[in-house]
Specification:
single chain; 419 residues; alpha/beta; D-Maltodextrin-Binding Protein, domain 2; 2 domains; nine-stranded mixed sheet; two-stranded antiparallel ribbon; globular
């Protein structure tokens, strides 16, 4: 699951139109398992889709995707005139002010159509729904998009702002030479807690991933409703940091730990970290950094934001993920689409965008200190900002072989049953 999944079209899970700057699945799984999917190929470096073998990108197995029969647009083309740029994006994942300023600059109209899950988005694109820009594309679906020729290679001459991005994203392991993607947002998964209600400091703990497993906080602990994040938490609690493991014994160990957690603290499973910790409904919450960056918007009157903490390991051994922006092959306004990707990668526009959605963009000049200076982030929540070292040392929850993915999902179904 993506941090944006489950958000309502009316924006009820986050205040709409407010800038921070203004404020200081699973019958398929059962079928796979019934068919004997428990037999895994531990060294699997590709998966099958449509009968074609598609690589599984890994930091130690970078992938250069093919561009045959899928050429980029020519250089030097003028932006389309009298156009309406069609954008397909997650709910509440781009600042409308940024969209409006782009439309004004390029004398065009822009329409944003939203989706709630990546499965929904992919299904509609495969059915023939047509847009120019596909935003928030997760790394794990890139292979499917490219193999199906749903997105087109980029012409880099239209995207000079890539020079402002971290070097990592000018040659990312999941898309060598950034042939198809421009970086959008980046985030970590860690532990949020109420410092005034919880006596432990995760930064002082030997293994803070075990922080939720404390009976004295019964009824006040929650973990994210996400099978990859949930099983990963159980793995890390046991000192296992292979977050793309295909080992059934390791997955089973994580499942048992999550079942123990349910018995120990009556754990809640939800993605409301950004509201529950500020209000004190939950004292310890497995959390996404971009959500917790918004914590001060939800503090009760008279309660300072400083009581909210967010921990991500200083050695970087925790989940890190990023989203990308792409141009669809069906684009009728491909030049404007390229220019929009470039626009969102400019520093000033990126800062304005972050002030709305909370999710940091990996640009060289966007640092925790800069976010504080711009009054986008409270000083006490600088730990929610992602550093280049976090991306380089962090643990990606990447595309799994189909049979391994089935084991992860089945383990999560069992662990979360009845909670």
């Amino acid at each position: 699951m993506h941090p944006r999944e489950g958000w309502q079209a009316d924006g009820t899970r986050r205040r709409q139109g407010l800038s921070r700057r203004s404020f200081l699945q699973s019958g398929a799984v059962a079928g796979l398992l019934a068919g004997g999917a428990g037999s895994l190929l531990s060294g699997c470096s590709s998966f099958l889709t449509g009968g074609t073998s598609v690589p599984l990108p890994r930091p130690n197995n970078p992938v250069t995707w093919p561009t045959k029969d899928n050429a980029a647009i020519a250089s030097g083309l003028a932006p389309e005139t009298g156009a309406t740029l069609q954008i397909y994006n997650w709910v509440a994942y781009v600042n409308q002010a940024c969209v409006n300023s782009f439309a004004k600059k390029y004398k065009c109209k822009v329409e944003v159509t939203t989706f709630n899950t990546m499965d929904e988005a992919l299904s509609k694109l495969r059915s023939g729904l047509s847009f120019d820009v596909f935003m928030g594309v997760t790394v794990d679906v890139l292979g499917q998009l490219i193999e199906s020729k749903l997105i087109q290679p980029l012409n880099h001459s239209y995207i000079p702002n890539i020079s402002q991005a971290w070097p990592d994203f000018r040659n990312p392991f999941y898309d060598q030479h950034w042939q198809y993607t421009v970086p959008y947002t980046i985030y970590t998964t860690g532990i949020a807690w109420r410092k005034d209600l919880v006596h432990e400091n995760p930064y002082a703990m030997k293994n803070a991933w075990a922080m939720p497993w404390q009976s004295k906080y019964k009824g006040k602990v929650a973990i994210l409703d996400d099978y990859r994040e949930g099983i990963s938490l159980g793995l890390m609690k046991n000192g296992i940091f292979s977050l793309n493991t295909t080992s059934k014994s390791q997955i089973d160990l994580s499942r048992q730990s999550l079942q123990d957690l349910a018995s120990l603290v009556d754990v809640h499973i939800d993605n409301n970290d950004y509201t529950e910790v500020p209000t004190g409904q939950t004292w310890i919450h497995h959390a996404w950094s971009g959500d917790m960056a918004a914590a001060y918007e939800y503090m009760p009157k008279g309660v300072p934001v400083e009581v909210v903490g967010y921990w991500f390991p200083t050695d970087g051994r925790g989940p890190v993920a990023n989203d990308t922006n792409t141009v669809l092959r069906s684009a009728t306004n491909p030049v404007l689409a390229h220019l929009f990707l470039n626009y969102l990668t400019g520093l000033d526009i990126a800062l304005e965008n972050i002030s709305y959605n909370g999710y940091m963009q990996p640009l060289n000049e966007i640092t925790p200190q800069r976010l504080v200076k711009e009054k986008i982030l409270p000083p006490s929540l600088m730990s929610t900002a992602v550093l280049p070292t976090d991306f380089r040392r962090g643990l990606g929850e990447l595309q799994l072989p189909v049979d391994a993915d089935a084991l992860w999902q089945q383990a999560w179904l069992v662990a979360s049953n009845g909670i």
